[in-house]
Amino acid sequence: DVKVTQSSRYLVKRTGEKVFLECVQDMDHENMFWYRQDPGLGLRLIYFSYDVKMKEKGDIPEGYSVSREKKERFSLILESASTNQTSMYLCASSLKDRKLNEQYFGPGTRLTVT
Amino acid sequence: TQLLEQSPQFLSIQEGENLTVYCNSSSVFSSLQWYRQEPGEGPVLLVTVVTGGEVKKLKRLTFQFGDARKDSSLHITAAQPGDTGLYLCAGDAGNMLTFGGGTRLMVKP
After folding, report:
1. pLDDT tens track for A67-97
2. For residue A39, what are the contacts with CB-CB under 8 A and spacing of at least 6?
3. From the list B33, B42, B94, which residue is nearest A98 (CB)?
4. Which residue on chain A is closest to B39 by alpha carbon?
């Protein structure tokens, strides 16, 4: 059974703190993605990675960075958290077959920045 | 940036009713996916449609891809409380997925 796990379901951080969100998949997928989800805005892509040590900016990369040192792990970093980064963060993975690009999601991390 | 618009944004119906959710764009997609997301969970893929005019059925759910591959619809027959959730469409333009804003469905018993 496919599985994408995220390190925390709920997280509360203070403004200015450095925040790490971890995502691990056990499906040997090449592609991994980080989205944020806000009411009425759907899912917006922050960063994605097609391979180890490789990263590409999505639609809203400002204020975020990522790291992919191992194939199964993709980390999202908020260098200095701000209140407008309060959101639901979703990690996803998919096979490199671009024809379908079907993505498998983790349960999400609800981050609150106070 | 390609946009996908979903309508309606919210839908509250009684058990047993039928409903249709729409996903529209001015852009052409190579495929379109529908996901359902339950509270506190990530989206789960329901179906992928690839060919213009394609119709796929998943029990009481019928998915259709427009002939021009710019729009899609999801029809649910005899909705049940277990259908409650957020329905998301996502278009694949070859590099990454573009998600619609979602339709939040509540089915009351």
Report:
1. 999 999 999 999 999 999 999 999 999 987 6
2. none
3. B94
4. A107
